[in-house]
Design a protein that fits this description.
It is built from 12 helices and 9 strands. The chain is of the alpha/beta class.
Length: 294
């Protein structure tokens, strides 16, 4: 991990970093609790992994982000909206967010038998989703039938025809070799841009003197642009690898995305209330997003 190497070098060995990758210690969903309890010092859960404790972490999955460019989303969370979300994360999880979020990539649609060209082509399809009211609502509004299935059961569900497709990323499809389970088509409609939140447990953070705290934050923010670029490259490589294995990916027309986003926005007020998201926070995010997009 580049961050660990940089911190050890820049701190002249005062900071030692042991990296546990691929969920060998804690799965993504359990990382926030482990950090809050001080069981681990540092982690980077996805926003979705924070939603059980912090309803506002559902906001990146709301309709307002449908079809939005990654540069816009990064700029948004690097600004006042991200500052406010970080305050909520820090207070509720007893952690320190050390800097900008880094990317996993877009969640996109992948199907077995039907090629999706416009969002309305999803009408009637049974789509596996990871869960969460925001994702379920989005697929229902698109006319699809969302089905919550464990990730470990996805290959068999695809092979048996229990679902017609999944919501995933190019890299997840590649790494799981889901082309061997029947995935033939991809549709990159930019439903949601998935990002990781880098954080340190308050117990560990408070153990460092101010100069090392500054060093940690400076080092992370020096590296986050590279991390984002690498993530984008990884998804592009995965898309090519999936193409080499027979998956045809469609990039939808921007006008179709804008029309679908407008349709989905009608569901947003009720969704904000259902998820328990602060209306003030949702309004802040929507206002900041509008500033950037306009």
């Amino acid at each position: 991990m580049r961050l660990g190497e940089e911190l050890q070098e820049r701190s002249n060995g005062q900071i030692e970093v042991n990296v546990y990758s691929s969920g060998s210690q804690y799965s993504g969903a359990t990382v926030p609790v482990a950090l809050a309890q001080g069981a681990i010092d540092m982690g980077a859960p996805l926003h979705q992994h924070l939603t059980k404790v912090i309803p506002e972490a559902n906001v990146p999955l709301l309709p307002m982000f449908y079809g939005v460019e990654p540069e816009v989303i990064r700029q948004l969370w690097d600004g006042p909206a991200g500052d406010r979300l970080n305050e909520l994360i820090e207070s509720k999880l007893n952690v320190k967010v050390i800097g900008g979020y880094f990317d996993l990539g877009y969640g996109s649609v992948f199907t077995t038998t039907k090629k999706i060209v416009v969002p309305s082509d999803m009408d009637g399809l049974k789509m596996r989703v990871p869960g969460g009211a925001a994702t379920l609502s989005r697929y229902e509004a698109l006319g699809a039938v969302p089905v919550v299935i464990s990730i470990s059961d996805v290959p068999q569900a695809l092979q048996r025809g229990a679902v017609d497709g999944i919501w995933s990323t190019q890299e997840s499809v590649r790494s799981s070799k889901l082309f061997d389970s029947g995935i033939k088509y991809g549709f990159e409609d930019r439903q949601a841009f998935l990002q990781y939140v880098p954080m340190i447990s308050r117990k560990a953070w408070d153990s460092y003197p101010p100069d090392l705290q500054d060093l940690i934050q400076t080092t992370w923010n020096d590296l986050v642009s590279e991390a984002r670029k690498n993530a984008l490259g990884l998804q592009e490589e995965a898309r090519q690898s999936n193409a080499d294995n027979g998956i045809e990916t469609v990039d939808p027309d921007p006008e179709a995305l804008a029309e679908t986003r407008a349709k989905l926005m009608a569901t947003q007020p009720a969704l904000i209330e259902e998820l328990g998201i602060s209306k003030e926070f949702a309004e802040l995010v929507e206002a900041e997003l509008a500033k950037i997009m306009n």
